[in-house]
Amino acid sequence: MASEWIIRYDEAFMRRFEKLGEMLETADRPALHRFLIDNFGNIFTTFQYYANRIACGGARDLEEEDEETRRELLRPLSHRQFRVIEQSFSVWANEEQYVISSIWDFLYDEGRIRNKKVMSVAEVDGCALVLEQVYVCLAGRHGGKKGE
Q: How many domains does the chain have?
């Protein structure tokens, strides 16, 4: 039985990911904000599930997954993903466009997204951090700048 809490890099996810790239190109901030909420908002609830259940040993549904999936769930962040998180929070990251595009950079992970089966627990955590920074920029509260 597949866990509903695992974010899988399946065809549907990849279509949303490719659409994210298109949305970033349009620079339509309100549309991008809505798109992210509708298509990637589940990352926050997944993060909360992992934080609450895994720490307490209550994520039995994850243990029922096949060996490859369980191994991928434990995959650490890549060096590039770690740097994207770090840079999106740094003081010099006042360049809003960089912060907004960081969600693509984090997920794309220098092309590694194409070889992954699921989003690891570490990636869910990191993605939630990056996505929150993107929301802040899209809402116009980053670096003292006002959004459109």
A: 1
Does 125 reside within a domain?
yes
The answer to the question of residue 41 being in a domain is yes
Give 10-residue mean pLDDT values along the chain (148 residues): 84 97 91 95 91 78 85 93 88 71 94 95 95 88 42
- The burial of 103, by beta-carbon neighbours within 10 Å (0-12 exposed, 13-18 middle, 19 or more buried), is given as buried
Length of the chain in terms of residues written: 148
pTM higher than 0.90: no
Range of the domain at 107: 11-138
d(CA 134, CA 144): 14
Q: Are 3 and 65 in contact (CB under 8 A)?
A: yes
Residue 60 lies in a domain: yes
Q: What is the dihedral of CA 7, 12, 15, 16, to 10 degrees?
A: -50
